[in-house]
Design goal:
nine-stranded mixed β-sheet, DNAb Helicase, Chain A, 2 domains, alpha/beta, Rossmann fold, 19 helices, elongated
């Protein structure tokens, strides 16, 4: 251990300088380096800025040399703060060749990981000393954060294609069905497939949460799927109440007062409670949850109960990892999106992520609001569109135009489908019992015919 590590944080100024010098000496080396290191892996702030600028120059497709680097830094007002042209020249002359750059990268990554571990242990120590902390929660947090560091320390290697093309060949013609959603939607999607991240987005009041609650309840009660539902907006009781109302097909307004609950309502609610209680639906209403915390919980759930689907409501209320909390919100959401997609691949399950649409999509006159949303309206980050395998938009025309005759029409637009067709399906939204269903007015069961009035909870039992 060197003197710097004894007195302060783990770092290697020599290795950081050697990496930057190697890039200036051999610009093509930046591809292998950037695959492993991030700017934050550098301890010295000047080195972070230089590395960021080198990456930007490379992404712009230009050449890299000392002069161009100095010019790019000057344009950002960073040339003198990082040490000036003289320091850049020193970096260039600090290494005779780029042959040993992999060793320098390993050293810098090792020091960066140690610093992250120190920060994590110091934070956990502070939290453990607090009166309100719980050991189980701290252990879960520690496990999740360490896993995150492990994933960023060990980049995946390249594998030969042979075993994968063999598996793809064996799957030809099998038409694998994913987690079922709704009959109309499944005609396009074929269900929600393993490793997919599905974004469900809409303007406020369109029924994003209701749609996902219905989908989750349907998958669990009718198809035996094990579903984990993370609700950052509503409590577990509120979520269960929504599920109970939609499953029972009763008017939610009836439940607000005891005297308005009919005998027929009670029969339906009792049956719905029994059905839902038997289903493998697991709820978590932890506010501001991180991907690392979700990962720890669903890993345990998958091991103990099995896991077929994860639903998160909604991404805008999630927290980024501790290492990213100094970044702006868009960068944080981008990291959360990337991690959720990685989690879907790791656990081999689909993940539904609810997202808000941006402000531009809800501003303007009534004509603007009646327009159906598109991918540019995703609010939190452009990374959502990039990372998602499927993007679904929900639009209810009558919400903005009450004069429309069809008050129940809901359009579900498949705006992105990485492995299949895009399109649009029409569904029915029964607001009184918070229920999305097929246009044929069938119950979620699709085997039980019911009238629109009964769906809304208005039909009274026959009088004796």
């Amino acid at each position: 251990m060197d003197e710097q590590e004894v007195l302060g944080m783990p770092q290697s100024d020599f290795a950081e300088r050697a990496i930057l010098g190697s890039i200036l000496l051999e610009p093509n080396s930046i591809y292998a380096i950037a695959a492993i290191l991030r700017p934050d892996d550098f301890y010295k702030d000047a080195h972070k800025k230089i590395f960021e600028t080198l990456i930007r120059l490379n992404e712009q497709g230009g050449d890299i040399d000392t002069f161009l680097l100095a010019n790019a830094l000057r344009e950002q007002g960073l040339l003198e703060p990082v040490g000036g042209v003289g320091y850049l020249t020193e970096l260039y002359e600090s290494v005779p060749s780029a042959a040993n750059v992999k060793s320098y990268v390993d050293i810098v990554k090792d020091k960066s990981t140690k610093r992250s571990l120190i920060a994590l242990t110091e934070r956990l120590t502070r939290e453990a000393r607090g009166e309100d902390s719980e050991a189980a929660s701290l252990l879960e947090e520690a496990e999740s954060e360490i896993y995150y560091l492990t994933q960023n320390t060990q980049p995946s290697s390249l594998d030969h294609i042979a075993p994968y093309v063999s598996e793809a060949f064996d799957n030809l013609g099998k038409n694998e069905q994913g987690v079922p959603t709704f009959l109309e939607l499944d005609r396009i999607l074929g269900g929600l497939h393993r490793t997919d991240m599905i974004i469900v987005a809409a303007r406020p009041g369109m029924g994003k949460t209701t749609f996902c609650i219905n989908l989750a309840e349907r998958a669990a009660t009718q198809h035996g799927c094990s579903v984990a539902f993370f609700s950052l907006e509503m409590s577990n009781v509120q979520l269960a109440s929504r599920m109970l109302v939609s499953r029972a097909r009763v008017n939610a307004e009836h439940l607000k007062k005891a005297e308005t609950i009919t005998d027929r309502d009670m029969v339906k609610l009792t049956q719905a409670m029994e059905d839902i209680s038997k289903a493998k639906i697991f709820l978590d209403d932890t506010p501001g949850i991180t991907v690392a915390e979700i990962r720890g919980k669903v890993r345990r759930l998958k091991k103990e109960k099995g896991l077929d689907l994860i639903v998160i409501d909604y991404i805008g209320l999630m927290q980024a990892s501790t290492l990213m909390r100094q970044e702006n919100r868009q960068q944080q959401i981008s990291e959360v999106s990337r991690q959720l997609k990685g989690l879907a691949k790791e656990l081999d399950v689909p993940i539904i992520v609810i997202s808000q649409l941006n402000r531009a999509s809800v501003k303007g006159d009534n004509t603007m609001n009646t327009k159906e949303p598109d991918l540019s309206h995703l609010r939190e980050s452009g990374a959502l569109e990039q990372d998602a395998d499927v993007v679904l938009f929900i639009h209810r025309p009558s919400y903005y135009n009450p004069e429309l005759e069809d008050k129940e029409l809901a359009k579900i637009k498949v705006a992105k489908h990485r492995n299949g067709a895009i399109g649009e399906v029409e569904m029915t939204f029964i607001s009184e019992c918070t229920l999305f269903m097929g246009r044929d007015k069938k119950h979620v069961d699709e085997n039980v015919e019911v009238s629109p009035e009964e769906l809304a909870g208005y039909v009274e039992p026959p009088q004796e």
